[in-house]
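Narrative of activities, Objective 1.

The group set out to show that a structural description can be obtained from nothing but a protein's sequence at a throughput compatible with the screening campaign. Below is one input-output pair from the validation batch, recorded exactly as produced.
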Amino acid sequence: MSRLEILSVIDIRFRLIIFTGVLTVIIVVGTLGFMFTEGLSLVDAFYFSIITITTVGYGDIHPSTEPGKFLAMFLIFCGVGTFLGVVANATEMIVNQREKQIRLQKTNVVMGTFFSEIGTRLLNIFTAFDQQFGTIGKTLKMTGNWSQKEFSEAKRRIESYDFSVDIHSSDLESLSRFLEEKGDSMLRHMENPALLEHESFTDLLRAIIHLRDEFLYRTDLRQLPGSDYRHLSGDMKRAYRRLVYQWLDYMNYLKGNYPYLFHLAVRTNPFDPDASPIVT
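Output recorded for this entry:
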């Protein structure tokens, strides 16, 4: 959820709380007022206040005293607008929640395409540069029965993981070629309107595209000064870290919503050396 979306939700909830609080006070004042001015019981006075505020109208009960009539007018002027404010804000919250679910579904469809075409393969390449792969591999080697608790524990563990890469430990040219081949696909993902409010995934794409651009500006990746290799290592580390976080969130989403897709993703887990799409 983006910052603007969070602020919007907070604003709606705040307004709903305010309107609900004011409406409650008005109902209490109306109930006590009708008990005093009209001599009604608690239930009748409460009923009288509700039908006045909701503009249902009077039938079996109506104000018969001047104070009661003034109180009824007060409830109509103040209570009706407040009641409509509660209804409007509650409706807006429900609609926003529904729209959020639809946007989330569209976003995860795009993310699924990304991991099928680029993400999983890129993780395989990045892990070849990770000299501590055994540590993160043990953390993220999941089974089809993983629970929410295990996902939360894995996320907690990778928060302290260094994600350092040894740029000389694998084929840098292959990584560069792969990113160049997938450049158009990544740009299409960036242009997808479903991702406009998904900041973490957009940041991931920016990090990968930036790494691709860094490679494209160098004619020979085999003969660079140490300072430049350290710079490229930092760019790789940034993309690697964000990719792992996004992959874990996506796997968690699949586990809860599409078990059959999750089982395929587990069988092609880039952090499991024994992973195989073949079912045995």
